[in-house]
Write a structure and sequence with these properties.
- By secondary structure, this protein is α/β, with parallel strands linked by helices.
- The protein folds into 2 domains: 243 residues, 3-Layer(aba) Sandwich (Aspartate Aminotransferase, domain 2); 132 residues, Alpha-Beta Complex (Aspartate Aminotransferase, domain 1), CATH 3.90.1150.
- Helices cover 36% and strands 15% of the residues.
- The chain has a 7-stranded mixed β-sheet, with helices on both faces. Strands 8-9-12-11-10 form a 5-stranded mixed β-sheet, with helices on one face.
- β5, α7 and β6 form a beta-alpha-beta unit.
- It is globular.
Length: 391
């Protein structure tokens, strides 16, 4: 992509998404990059192999396809470098393994993605790393939890399933003052609506399975680092051999081209539905940070430039039977994990794993992924769910 001169107006996000990561003139003018399937890479002579002075040396160390996606992500993140891994969970585990050692202390927000918690409570503790959880509303108060051996503070905002907003700049400042690095799972907002590195985060993590893919058919993760952390992340990624498959990489790069317009549609429909839910007698509360009623709305408005299509609401009373009646009555909303695709999804949230940030909700928590269907049709489908739940 041709970079604009200093005198030109900066390119818009959709323009950058359409062109980032690959210049057609680099490969005979073809608009899309080649999908390079590679393990062995040949060297022109023994001296070149011995010196290592060749851009590509082996399939696990990068190809033109992976470079195209990593370059596009760097443009979005403002990062020094990005590594690609086979899943969103791998995007969490690789940097944690890269920056933690036996005897270290790590702080995780209590509202993290459950597989992240499971990895911390099993793998990290087995490796001799001390794991501690903190309340998502702590902000600068996290300084009280910092220890001489605290090496990483892990954040996720909004929180998984219940959408608490963290004060990322304040947490980052306190962590850096204590000598720790900050990681953030930013899958919900994507770098289009929140750029973690601009707010003090060192390592930005995304499940590209979600919005970058957009079609619920690819697993992939990205990990982007600032200049200070990039060399260690890159070295650890190569050591772990955690590389992504070329066809998956290509699918994510293709998804990026339309992510801006898709996210805008997801955001608009989700907010309209969230506001409708606030008016329903069967709803106790709606957990969407872009709503003025959300406790973290002011911080969200300060730091974020948009909201994605995932949020939750609390049924007004009832238990699992009522939640299941609601879900089973839905026809357009599928019942399934993940999100970020074109189709709407719903599920009952399980937050029994929380240890320091428990909330006693008056009824079951239902998480919605708002897809690209017509909003009026989705509202009618939800109304069917409420009718079934009240019966």
């Amino acid at each position: 992509m041709t970079n604009p001169s200093d005198k030109q107006k900066p390119l818009g996000i959709n323009t950058r998404l359409a062109h980032a990561g690959y210049d057609p003139s680099d490969y005979y003018g073809f608009l899309n990059p080649p999908v390079v399937h590679a393990s062995t890479v040949l060297f022109p002579d023994a001296q070149t192999m011995a010196s290592g002075k060749q851009k590509y040396t082996y399939g696990t160390r990068g190809t033109p396809t992976s470079d195209a996606l990593a370059s596009a992500v760097d443009m979005l993140e403002g990062s020094a470098g990005t590594v690609l891994v086979p899943s969103g969970l791998a995007a969490v585990t690789v940097p944690l393994l890269a920056f933690l050692s036996a005897g270290d202390h790590v702080l995780f927000v209590d509202t993290i993605y459950y597989p992240t918690r499971h990895f911390a409570d099993t793998m990290l503790t087995r490796l001799g790393i001390e794991v501690e959880y903190y309340d998502p509303h702590l902000g600068a108060g996290i300084s009280a939890l910092m220890r001489p051996n605290t090496k990483v503070v892990f954040t996720e905002s909004p929180g998984s399933n219940t959408f608490e907003i963290q004060d990322i700049p304040a947490i980052s400042a306190m962590a850096h003052e204590a000598g720790a690095i900050v990681m953030m799972d930013n899958t919900w907002a994507t770098p289009l609506y929140f750029r973690p590195l601009d707010h003090g985060v060192d390592i930005s993590i995304h499940a590209a399975t979600k919005y970058p893919s957009g079609h619920s058919d690819v697993l992939l993760g990205t990990v982007s680092a600032n200049a200070r952390c990039w060399p260690q992340l890159l070295e650890s990624h190569g050591t772990l051999g955690m590389c992504a498959a070329p066809d998956d990489v290509y699918q994510i790069l293709r998804g990026l081209r339309t992510m801006g317009v898709r996210l805008d549609a997801h955001q608009k429909s989700a907010l309209e539905i969230a506001r409708w839910l606030e008016t329903q007698l069967g709803v106790a509360s709606v957990l969407h940070p872009a709503l003025e009623s959300h406790p973290g709305h002011d911080i969200w408005k300060r730091d974020f430039t948009g909201a994605s299509g995932v949020f939750a609401f609390v049924l007004a009373g009832g238990g699992a039977t009522r939640a299941q009646a609601f879900l089973d009555a839905l026809k357009l909303f599928g019942i399934g994990y993940s999100w970020g695709g074109y189709g709407s999804l719903a599920l009952q949230v399980n937050i029994a794993d929380r240890t320091v940030a428990r909330t006693d909700y008056p009824g079951p928590v239902i998480r919605l992924q708002i897809g690209l269907e017509d909003t009026a049709d989705l509202i009618a489908d939800l109304q069917n769910g409420f009718d079934a739940a009240s019966a």
